[in-house]
Design a protein that fits this description.
The protein is of the alpha/beta class. The chain folds into two domains: 199 residues, Rossmann fold (3-Layer(aba) Sandwich), CATH 3.40.50.1170; 114 residues, Rossmann fold, CATH 3.40.50. The protein is built from nine helices and 18 strands. The strands form five sheets. It has an eight-stranded mixed beta sheet, sandwiched between helices. Strands 15-16-17-18 form a four-stranded parallel beta sheet, with helices on both faces. Helix 2 crosses helix 3, helix 3 runs parallel beside helix 8 and helix 8 runs antiparallel to helix 9. The two termini are 38 Å apart.
Length: 332
């Protein structure tokens, strides 16, 4: 049976090709993609493409564009067996995380991919990433929002960008890869918990969120200013969820939580988890009402909080949901 795959172009390095008239890189015409990459011509796969309204560098990504992507998937969901989203690498992990929360009841693959070198350059990694992403999107074994990059398939909301120079640009520090690609594609036996809810797309996000990254010598006034700037706060703490042993910081956090701020504690470390009550130095969070984000990435914590704060939930429910595993973003 012929598989129908929708390619959604959002912008980024992968969509650039060198002009024949100059050395400048120009956006590729994706209507001519098959001729540009003859390996995509396959009698068993029908590939169609669509772009967001204004393709952008991923550094300019926004919640509005995430909602546009989700709506494109919603409109085309019943027509295609899988989706491949071409995206710049800088914010790909944020976008994949956001899409995972905006869509519920997903039973098809949504694969994000991109490249470190433009598709029109001889040494590009774009062709292999794109060809393999399309092959994975044809496979009903994957019912998840994923990132495929350099022979590895990752769960999207577990992924972070770790390298700007090498082809191995992404890692999934706290969750195993879903597939490894060599001569064959070897899928992991790990199965995402089946979402029994009917397919739907949530079409709003709150950006009333800020991030505090702790560092030695951070000023109390800086912490206060950031907390005052937003309803939802993600704190990137030290190690296993630690902070300076400061009565002043604890007082600020306790006051903020009483004043309806939602504060989430995640670790700055690439691998591992924020843990409640493991060290004495975590008491400033434990005693003040800060929610432990466990092993969520910052990207997942930010987009999950954006999602939950846009729903008709009270603060107590948002805090409870932040500690629950909604889309595979947090370890049980």
């Amino acid at each position: 049976m012929k598989k129908n795959i929708l390619l959604i172009y959002t912008g980024g390095t992968i969509g650039m090709i060198k002009s024949h008239k100059s050395d400048r890189l120009l956006p590729i015409n994706f209507d001519n993609l098959i001729s540009a990459i003859p390996e995509l011509s396959n009698p068993e796969i029908n590939i169609e493409n669509q772009s967001i309204t204004n393709p952008i560098d991923s550094s300019s990504m926004s919640p509005q564009v995430w909602i546009e992507i989700a709506k494109l998937i919603k409109l085309s969901y019943n027509k295609y067996e899988g989706f491949v989203i071409l995206h710049g690498t800088d914010t790909m992990a944020y976008t994949a995380s956001a899409i995972s929360f905006l869509i519920q009841g997903l039973n098809k693959p949504i694969i994000f991919t991109g490249s470190q070198i433009p598709i029109g350059v001889r040494r590009t990694d774009a062709k292999e990433n794109l060809i393999t992403s399309i092959e994975i999107a044809c496979n009903s074994k994957i019912c998840d929002v994923c990132i495929y990059f350099e022979d590895q398939l990752y769960r999207g909301n577990r992924t972070v960008k770790v390298n700007t120079e090498h082809f191995e640009a992404f890692k999934s520090p706290n969750f195993p890869t879903l597939a490894k690609v060599g001569v064959n594609i070897k899928y992991s036996p790990i199965k995402k918990k089946v979402d029994k809810k009917s397919f739907s797309v949530h079409e709003s996000l709150s950006n009333d969120i800020a991030i505090i990254k702790l560092f030695p010598g951070i000023k109390i006034s800086t912490i206060e200013a950031i907390i005052d700037s937003a309803k939802g706060i993600i704190i990137e703490s030290y190690g296993a969820g630690n902070a300076p042993n400061s009565n002043k910081i604890e007082s600020i956090l306790r006051k903020a939580c009483k004043n309806d701020k939602i504060i989430i504690n995640v670790s700055q470390c690439l691998q591992g988890s924020a843990i409640t009550n493991k060290y004495e130095s975590s008491k400033v969070f434990n005693n003040s009402g800060v929610v432990c984000g466990k092993d969520m990435t910052t990207e997942a914590a930010v987009t999950k909080l954006m999602f939950l704060m846009s729903k008709d939930y009270n603060d107590k429910k948002i805090k409870k949901q932040m500690q629950k595993n909604l889309r595979g973003e947090i370890s049980n």
